[in-house]
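Format notes (please read before filing issues)

Several people have asked whether sequences and structure tokens are stored in separate files. They are not. Every record keeps both together, in the order shown below: the sequence lines, then the token lines. Line labels are part of the format and must not be stripped during preprocessing.
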Amino acid sequence: MAVLDETNRFRTLARLMRDKANPPGVDKTGLRAALDAADDWVEANSGAFDGALPEPYRSTATAEEKTTLLAYVAMRRAGKLQTEEDA
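Then the structure lines:
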């Protein structure tokens, strides 16, 4: 998947701000710079992530499925993904 276009970066920034996901002392400009860096990092490192995935997942999953997997892992690590099994 390619980096987010300007519209999607802006909408992601808006969501981060609504969710108050920026640390104290980081303004909108700083949060946008971090968002851009994170998106660019994902793009630059997508090959390494793909190579780390085991077969048969690597060869059968779509780019969207692989991105969803990475997002779920990141959200869980951040405490933002709750499951029925957590209850």
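For reference, the curators noted about this record: Residues 28-44 form the longest helix (17 residues). The mean pLDDT is 96.
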